[in-house]
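PROTEIN DESIGN WORKSHEET
SECTION A - STRUCTURE
LENGTH: 343
TOKENS:
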């Protein structure tokens, strides 16, 4: 049985060493973005990859993008991504949310009707939470021709080894549980290719693209960046744009799972979790910030600023009345957010 990759500080250091990143590649924020100061950005995100290059483009010529596979209803870490996109949008950034219906259809072999129906509910949920689809974009992959065309055009610039190197860090953990194919099958390669094409298609109309994903998915961005670097004069795709990234920390999963995951039952709070279960799970977490899904979820949510999170770190360790009140407050907030999911 494959051991789970736990997203600890030692994991982050391992990523730097294994993939040849330097502290100058994956960096903490030392600039403002969308009206958020560096302290707040560093509380909200683990690091960025060439985020300063993103800022060199004018606001009208840059865009932030994220996406979610339609393999199941959203858990709270996914919801926090939507809320972060809303925060960036309110700060003046153009934002896109991609609803990965075709990603789940191929990558997770989900029924077509199921992923399409789920994408419509995700779209409605994003709007209910406050995303403005007149100022930004919420779209599915199905019928989005620019990305589908780009996926085909980049095929000659990708090798099998690129797909094999792009497996998620917990791939073996998912394989052992029968949640994903062990090999990089054709349908999974299609799924990854379309994800990269989603990024590259944006670069045809923008000078800078900032991809916002969890740090466990850094290999997907690396796959797209390597493909972009190989484009030449023979492909009718623009390559002279900045493809950058902002990576979030992970929320440790319940029940010993490495993270909140739609694919791992019992690992996360999601939009179907009953209110009484929300309170039970959040209250039962250990008073150790590095091991507490409750504290780590607080770090993901835009409702907490950097100074508040520092205080909450201390209160979590003390495990006293102040922390207990903070957990009750979080519970009420999570229940309200969950209630907005379209049934």
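SECTION B - SEQUENCE
RESIDUE ASSIGNMENT:
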């Amino acid at each position: 049985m494959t051991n789970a990759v736990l997203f600890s500080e030692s994991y982050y250091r391992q990523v730097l060493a294994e993939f040849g990143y330097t502290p100058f590649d994956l960096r903490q924020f030392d600039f403002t973005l969308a009206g958020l100061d560096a302290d707040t950005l560093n509380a909200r995100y683990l690091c960025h990859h060439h985020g300063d290059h993103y800022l060199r483009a004018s606001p009208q010529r840059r865009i932030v993008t994220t996406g979610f596979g339609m393999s199941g209803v959203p858990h709270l870490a996914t919801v926090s991504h939507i809320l972060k996109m809303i925060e960036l949008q309110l700060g003046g950034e153009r934002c896109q949310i991609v609803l990965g219906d075709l990603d789940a259809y191929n990558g997770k072999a989900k029924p077509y009707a199921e992923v399409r129906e789920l994408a419509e509910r995700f779209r409605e949920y994003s709007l209910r939470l406050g995303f403005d689809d007149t100022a930004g974009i919420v779209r599915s992959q199905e019928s989005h021709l620019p990305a589908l065309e780009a996926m085909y055009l980049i095929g000659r610039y990708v090798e099998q080894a690129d797909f094999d190197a792009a497996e998620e860090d917990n791939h073996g953990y998912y394989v052992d549980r029968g949640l994903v194919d062990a090999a990089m099958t054709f349908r999974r390669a299609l799924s990854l290719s379309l994800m990269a094409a989603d990024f590259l298609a944006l670069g045809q109309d923008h000078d800078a693209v900032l991809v916002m994903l969890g740090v466990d998915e850094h290999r997907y961005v690396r796959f797209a960046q390597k493909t972009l670097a190989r484009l030449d004069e023979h492909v009718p795709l623009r390559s002279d744009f900045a493809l950058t990234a902002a990576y979030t920390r992970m929320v440790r999963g319940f029940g010993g799972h490495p993270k909140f995951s739609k694919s791992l039952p019992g690992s996360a709070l999601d939009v179907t979790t009953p209110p009484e279960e929300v309170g039970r799970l959040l209250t039962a977490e250990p008073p150790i910030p590095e091991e507490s899904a409750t504290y780590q979820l607080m770090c993901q949510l835009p409702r907490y600023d950097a100074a508040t999170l520092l205080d909450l770190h201390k209160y979590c360790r003390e495990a006293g009345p102040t922390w207990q009140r903070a957990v009750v407050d979080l519970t009420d907030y999570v229940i309200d957010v969950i209630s907005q999911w379209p049934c």
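SECTION C - NOTES
The mean pLDDT is 91.
Residues 85 and 262 are 20 Å apart (CA to CA).
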